[in-house]
From TrEMBL, chains A, B:
Keywords: Pyridoxal phosphate. This is Alanine-glyoxylate aminotransferase. The lineage of its organism: Eukaryota, Metazoa, Ecdysozoa, Arthropoda, Hexapoda. SUPFAM superfamilies: PLP-dependent transferases. Belongs to the class-III pyridoxal-phosphate-dependent aminotransferase family. Pfam families: Aminotran_3. InterPro entries: Aminotrans_3, Aminotrans_3_PPA_site, PyrdxlP-dep_Trfase, PyrdxlP-dep_Trfase_major, PyrdxlP-dep_Trfase_small.
Length: 485, 485
């Protein structure tokens, strides 16, 4: 596979260090991966080592799916221009997207990224409601743009963040395992309703303070927040309160949309057919890696936006290539019945993970739907104290076993699995088998205690584990010895 | 060419009206074009009519350039993942970009659009200076995101805009033909310096008001502002004043970069080797239509951003496919010596346009550099009153002659030419020949006077001319007669 490299890995790293902003982080920082090709659910490094990809929800229908590659390549050779000209790919894409949404979500805006989609969603909401304030969930992440950092506690409450703007209201994340209201503390209670009441209170407080709600925005299943499965009755109630307060409801489906949850195309649909947002944003999986995303809204909101008189022009948004690719992704999902597949494989994976939980005390919770799965690690099942260092160590060890998984949640203790949708039963079994072994290792010899304020701890919090730094230093010494000999 | 359509044009239009937000405008709204393929400087409609493309600066090295198509297609089939893995395409792209910039601009951030680039540039500037206020130019357009509309008078001063935010300061556009300081009024004066003094005054006033300047942002040649050629000594002085005030200088090269100006890679370089911005944003031409853009800055500013501790992650930014395409575009520019070509063809076009100006009183000014050319139409050369309706009529007539040109500037009276860089001498001659004929027509029979507040006027201002609406209505009646017969 040497021919797939243009330079040795060391040179790639040196050039990256010199010419790419260091704010752009690598996975496995202590020993990053150089990936040169990928196929289906597998990625290959420069030495042709094959990694099972359990995290790349962007490569939705499988890395380099031939239908998607063909659609993109053919269109690239034919025409790639902006949407000020009529093109069939654009209208076919918009028709497909609208067809996958419940009524009255039927008007689309094509953009290049989930971030662009969420920014536009906010513009639509403001144009429609004439209000400004936004309700967001704790630990939410909605994108890398200035306005989205403003509504992302995952960013503004962390290093480099400048805290919550006045016009942003943060509702608790509806996490029934380690959130404000826990299942154990409120047995047999409607926690969805209980968490929704928090939004109701925010609306009430805002009104008392003379503020007006523009929008409520939430991922239908919170991802960075820790693979959270929204409890039943949450959105139904939240949407009611937000609308009563004059706001609109935005469902961020950028990470979880396009059938990942199996039984529905969109994760908000898991909450019932009557739960319909006013604006939906979609992205990542839509282009299987190609930059394409969209906002889908109601004719009424689109009309309010048009009535402002301001044109919306997005240079690449909805170009014939992006749309050819998005259309191919949707076609593959349907043709290969990947939603059903996600349900079957996801259920198998969840069952296996739950069996693992009976064996390993570190596993506090296993949750998921379709191929959106979280395994929450805790030091103690009673207190549910997050096992952060353990989670990071496991990620590094899994990589050594050629499995790519990652963690999320405010304490980075939730192992997340959101693989390409072509992930198989055998892949699920393999991941669980290796995870079993690694958990046994960790339980036999837990990682050294780490001071929560130490630089090591900060590295851990960045999610780029260096548990094997010592090992690497030894390797480097060995290399030196070899090169000297 | 029927096989390139998935449905008749009427159906495309109906689906578009139903499923695409109406804020997304079409060119030639009264009779939009359906383009199904393109090659070099030509676009073809569904009836295989060939149009000469004089406006598509995104299809930089020519529509569907085979090298770019091949680079994109090959990489699409091999790997398309995010930049948390090492990849040679990314570092090669960053090295190429850095190599094309003057020192110390050597650190890159890869993103998906010029808008994302400008938003990130603002974030970098804020992290570095810790200030918030931004100086922008009148009539500037920097992108479609919320934060960029805030710094775009072209948007915030127009329908749907909410006016200038408090933290934004607007300096006059350095337009020496119809701007605040005109060449005729200040003969033999350094107008670059004179316009720069306006920025100096803004900095002074801000300080007096207790405000701190974060950044000055400007296109190196203002595009939407009306194909403005920045007068000499402007940026040299502005950059000095802005830096003295504690701000950084951002050059927006999204429209005009990548050799369009011929003699330099970047338009800011036209102002002298000593004129070096702190942050440069690039986009549109970079991907020849593929969504890729970048921010290039100094190690110092990148370090300030890193030191905030906030990670910057852009899902598709710098993926192997975008970078393969960007690298191919740069290679083609070099291999085919397109910068030299742009200088030669651009000079020829300018000369021909200047000859045309001696014949047609409507032409008030001809300006340009390389393949960035503006022909400003005026009703009267003395008062320089903009000939808006005439410009719009000409655009429509040129389309009927299979030439795509457009207009810009606050009064939409500047015909703009910014064709793919493969535009030839013969293309230039053809455009001027047809423009000559159309100008003669208009001068013989000027378009009817239009009330400046009428709906017609508004349509004109949207830039989607309806001069042939009457003709179309007749056509529709004829169709009806035919279909009834």
């Amino acid at each position: 596979m040497d021919s797939l490299e243009q330079m040795p890995k060391g040179d790639t790293m040196r050039l990256r260090k010199r010419h790419i902003g260091e704010s752009c982080k690598l996975f496995y920082r202590a020993d990053p991966l150089k990936i040169v090709r990928a196929e289906g659910q597998y990625m290959f490094d420069e030495k042709n080592n094959r990694y099972l990809d359990c995290i790349n929800n962007v490569a939705h229908v499988g890395h380099c799916h031939p239908d998607v590659v063909k659609a993109g390549s053919d269109q690239l050779a034919l025409l790639n221009t902006n949407n000020r000209f009529l093109h069939d790919n654009l209208v076919v894409c918009a028709k497909k997207l609208s067809g996958l949404m419940p009524e009255p979500l039927s008007v689309c805006f094509l953009v290049n990224s989930g971030s662009e989609a969420n920014d536009l969603a906010m513009r639509l909401a403001r144009a429609h409601t004439k209000n400004h304030d936004v309700i967001t969930l704790d630990h939410a992440y909605h994108g890398h743009l200035t306005t989205l950092i403003d509504i992302s506690p995952y960013k503004f409450n962390h290093p480099g963040g400048s805290g919550k703007p006045e016009w942003v209201h943060v509702a608790p994340c509806p996490d029934v395992y380690r959130g404000k209201f826990r299942d154990v503390d409120y047995p047999n209670q409607d926690l969805g309703k209980k968490y929704a009441d928090e939004v109701k209170n925010i609306c009430k407080k805002a009104r008392e303070d003379g503020r007006s709600i523009c929008a409520f925005i939430a991922e239908s299943l919170q991802s960075c927040g820790g693979q959270i499965i929204t409890p039943p009755n949450y959105f139904r109630n939240v949407y009611k309160y937000v609308r009563e307060a004059g706001g609109v409801c935005i469902a961020d489906e950028v990470q979880v949309g396009f059938g990942r949850v199996g039984k529905a195309w969109w994760a908000f649909q898991l909450q019932g057919d009557d739960v319909i947002p006013d604006i939906v944003t979609v992205g990542k999986p839509m282009g299987n890696g190609y930059p394409v995303a969209a906002v889908i809204t109601t004719p009424e909101i689109a009309r309010s936006f048009r009535n402002t008189g301001m044109e919306y022009f997005n240079t690449y948004g909805g170009n014939p290539v992006s749309c050819a690719i998005a259309n191919a992704v949707i076609d593959v999902l349907e043709k290969e019945k990947l939603r059903d597949h996600a349900t079957r494989v996801g259920n198998h994976l969840l069952n296996l993970a739950r069996q693992l939980a009976t064996k390993h005390i570190l596993i506090g919770d296993v949750r998921g739907v379709g191929l959106f799965v979280g395994i929450e690690l805790v030091k103690d099942r009673e207190s549910r104290t997050p096992a952060t260092a353990e989670a990071q160590h496991i990620i590094t060890r899994m990589k050594e076993e050629f499995i790519l998984i990652s963690s999320d949640g405010p304490d980075r203790n939730v192992l997340k699995l959101k693989p390409p949708m072509v992930f198989t039963h055998e892949d699920a079994e393999h991941v669980i088998k290796i995870l079993d072994e690694v958990l046994t290792e960790v339980e036999d010899e837990p990682p050294r205690k780490i001071n929560t304020n130490s630089p090591e701890r900060r590295k851990l919090e960045d999610g780029y584990m260096s548990c094997n730094e010592k090992k690497i230093r030894i390797d480097d010494q060995q290399k030196e010895i070899i090169s000297k000999s």
